[in-house]
Every structure is written in structure tokens, then in C-alpha cells.
Input
Amino acid sequence: YERFIERFPDVHALASAPGDEVMRYWQGLGYYSRARNLHTGAKQIVDNFNGVFPADYADIRSIRGVGEYTAAAIASFSFRLPYAVVDGNVYRVLSRLLGIDEPIDTTSGKKYFARMADELLDRTAPDRYNQAIMEFGALQCVPVSPDCSVCPLMESCAAFAAGRVSELPVKIGKTRVRSRWFNYFMIRYASKTWIRRREEGDIWSHLYEFPLLETDHSVNWAQLIETDLYRKWFGGIDRIDVTPVLLDRRHILSHQHLHASFYLLEVIASEKRDASESVVFAQLEKDGFIPVDWNGLDEFAVSKLTQIALDELGKNNCRIF
Output
């Protein structure tokens, strides 16, 4: 974080930076969509508001990545505007205090709680009120086994009176955790390797990665080399020396469990054939991979998982330069 702030000390520095550089400095901070939104938002502030953060709720809400919760928090805390913040803590406090059975993870439920929060908001001190109710939920009205005996709202709490504290708030949905198996090929050909930037629509968008073969279950090396994609990328290469770097490394994201294996592929070109990069890796480059120097990899933002594999490669004294 400090490294990121030092490189981008103000909105103008962030807005004028290339996207890849922003992602590289954000590397390791997680939730990479926040970095992309932050970058786009900085550009909006510079272009639309002359580099000054807006003080109007609608303008704040127009900034990329700023939703209703964030906009209300900024509006109330920074400008004392009368907008109620509704986060997980607020849902919990209101549902228990008022005995609300409306599910918090439905559209109608979210609208209902937003309306209740707005009705209860102290418009003379929205900043203090919002901070107080969020802190109350975080410190006193906690999700599991709150100490109701010392709660200052105990006598007026509908959930406590009905013995339903553990039942509220109501949440009907449960996010499905998805398991995925990633098999990465860390190519080394002379001093080069091949990487590609991930696009939108999946995890780690705009980060760079080695050639990836994703499967729907765990596979070993013998099974990998029989896949169509492996044959497409490497079938025309005469010799490849393979070294496992990480095998079945579990990496947990918010709603996904990744099982990753990384293999170092040292490519040995035949002297009898044209050994130029464009020939040896023609299929990879057709699929958008670009050749880069191994010693220049730190110029590209990669996922924490890929960085773990690179660190493991160095720890095991594998020569990569």
C-alpha cells in the first residue's frame, strides 16, 4: 500500500499512469477490480471535476467503482450530507432491533432496509450516526453469540424479546464455491518466456500469466500432454525438459477454490530445424502470448499465485536468467 501511494501521491499522478503500471503497483493488495476502478475513477475526477473530488452525492455516485454504500459513506463522512450507510453491520443491527424478517440478500429486502435506514438517520449529524451504527454492529451486535446482557439497546430489541437474535438477519441465498484446476507452463527458451494478459470476465483480469491449461479435475503430467491444447502449443517442439515447480497448490479466493500446478518447460530446439522464436512458439503467439525476457518479468503485474510460483522457482535455485 505504501509503495502504491508513494508512486501515485495524488489523483493526477494516478490518472496519467498507464494501466499496466497501476496494476503492477497494486500487485499483492488483492481485489484487482478495485485498482482498475480506482484508475478509471481518477481519470473521471480529473476530466469531469477538474481534479477535485465532487461534493455532490450524484456526482460521487457517478465515479467508477463507487456504489450506493461507498457513495453514502463518502457523502456523510466527508461532507455531512444526509445519506444513510447500509453495510453488513447495519443490516444486522436493524434486523434485530426492529425484528425484520425481510431477507437482506434480495432486491426487495435491500430496498426495505435502505428505506428504514434513511428514516432513522440523524440528519443533523449523519456522519456520527453512520459511524455509530456501523461500530455498534462491529463491536456489540456481532454476527455470532453477541453479549446481549450488556447491550444498551436490549430492552428495545425485538429480536432479544422474541429470543430470535441468532435467527436474524435472514439471508436466503448462499454463494456457491467453485473449484477450478489451473495448470501453468512456465516456458524458458534461451532468456525468454511467454505471457499473456487476462481479459475481462474472470478473476485477475488485466494481470499477466503464463500459458494456462484449465481442467475440470486434477490431472497429472502424463494426462496434460495428451490434451489438445498442449499438443497445439507444444506439439511441434522436438525436446522439452520439464521440472515441477508447484503441484496442486490450493489457493482460496472469495468464491473460488483454485488448485494450481506450475511446470517449468525448458525448450530445446533442434539444430536441424528453424529454431527462431516465431516458428517454435507460433501457436502461442497466435493465441495472444508475447515473448518477454525472464529478467523483465517484474515489469508485469501477476497474481499472488503466480508470484508464489516464481518465488518457489528462485528458492529452489532454478536458473531463470
User: Anything to note?
Assistant: The longest helix spans residues 32-49. The mean pLDDT is 91. The CA atoms of residues 116 and 303 lie 41 Å apart.
